[in-house]
Amino acid sequence: MTPPRQLHIKSYGCQMNVYDAQRMVDTLAGEGFVETANADEADLVILNTCHIREKASEKVYSELGRLRVMKDDAARQGRDVKIAVAGCVAQAEGEEIVRRAPTVDVVVGPQSYHHLPHLLKQAKAEGRALETEFPVDDKFGFLPPPKPEAIRSRGISAFVTVQEGCDKFCTFCVVPYTRGAEVSRPVTRIIEDVTRLADNGVREITLIGQNVNAYHGEGPDGRSWPLGKLLERLAAIPGVLRLRYSTSHPRDVEDSLIEAHRDLPALMPFVHLPVQSGSDRILAAMNRKHTADDYRRVIDRLRAVRQDIAFSSDFIVGFPSESREDFSATLALVMQIGYAAAYSFKYSPRPGTPAADMQEMVPAAEMDERLERLQNLIDSQQSAFNKAAIGTTVDVLFERAGRNPGQIVGRTAYLQPAHVMASSDIVGKILPVRVDSLERYSLLGELAARDARPLVSAFSQTPIGA
Fold it and tell me: According to the model, what pLDDT value does residue 136 have?
């Protein structure tokens, strides 16, 4: 028998790339590939790239330089190693990758990775394969389902893509150009995916999309279903204990999603809702299509139906022409909302986006100072949120063994890691934990009785607009 070929995938960036990497593994399993964590052992190495963060493409070229050395060493040993670049950098810079990195055999965009078996054959025959056009066919109709043993090996939590692309065209963002227009998968296909995962031990499902709450997939009744209705249907699937979704846009938080947070115990009270800035002038320059008050009202609506709900967000500091007054408005918004976590970054231009041509750049030193102030504020809020759990009892979905002998690790409704000493048979179960202390961002405690005092969000409060 021919031994299996080894596949190594290194993913950068977003949750969508984690999901895409798993689907690449499933696709290439039919070609005789098995996944390895060691790139040096691999017959095929795929860099699954992200174009969102600063210097994303340069990180890819740096990694390709290291892989070129590895590929040359393997060739001297008689091994033929192939290298592929996939994802958003591949989509945005396909021809440039071909020019700068001749060691690359395959370049494939995020909408075309279902063609990987064909592209590998093409590269073998022709020396190189490039596919970065948006295909007419929907890749989800061609991707093979993961095998049961693959699902079980990936743990009790899983991502499921329900929507791709974005029609918002924020001036700083490359997603509309690398992922294309908004497309939503049919409800029946999503139900099939989630049922398969639940049947094989997955207990927590996170629905993902570049703009996930713009979901409008065709339902079994022939009508367009919003995200809230989809969540309601998925919550009824046996074995699904927790539901989440990410990433959302404030403009697309509609009534059925609010009602889902009110009515579905399986839907976790933790929402990632990027705002980017607290200044209306900067939000307009970003083409975000909402104001700071619009954002506050969305927060109010969610808090009105779930008093224990908590939020995370994204912020860009130093967007072109951002004044000190604009930045102060961002700090004020953070103070008003109160976040359990947030991601914040200095603005960096992305080639091909409208913001890249804006001239009024904020000095680098000023950006550094603003980012430090914002992150200090966010860190203080996250610390307060975590400290509020001490002495309370929280429900934890246990995921895996910890680093220490006898330790089991899980996550709370707010994605806080929680550690207890217990037997491994609690993996996959939701159990109450009495929180005794913190270790950095992790909660430490013991399994507790269900009548212990519940956790109340550190930021439960009267709605801002009241």
Answer: 52
Question: What is the pTM for the complete model shown?
Answer: 0.86
DSSP conformation letters of 232-294:
HHHTTSTT--EEEEE---GGG--HHHHHHHHH-TTB-SEEE---B-S-HHHHHHTT-S--HHH
The type of residue at 209 is G
Sheet of 341-346, strand order:
270-272, 310-317, 341-346
Residue type, 160: V
Residue with more model confidence, 47 or 177: 47
pLDDT (0 to 100) of residue 277: 98
Question: What is the 3-state secondary structure of 62-126?
Answer: HHHHHHHHHHHHHHHCCCCCEEEEEEHHHHHHHHHHHHHCCCCCEEECCCCHHHHHHHHHHHHHH
Cα–Cα distance measured from residue 281 to residue 297, given in angstroms and rounded to the nearest whole number = 18
Residues 353-372 have a mean pLDDT of 95
User: What local confidence, expressed as pLDDT, does residue 331 receive?
Assistant: 98
State the residue for tokens 């609690």: 426
E strand or H helix that includes residue 15: helix 15-29
Residue 260 exposed, middle or buried by CB count within 10 Å (0-12, 13-18, 19+): buried
Phi-psi region of 406 (alpha: psi -120 to 50; beta: other; left: phi over 0): left
CB 435 within 8 A of CB 392: yes
The residue among 21, 247, 236 whose CA lies nearest residue 113 is 21
Q: In 3-state terms, what secondary structure has residue 200?
A: coil
Chain centre to alpha carbon of residue 193: 18
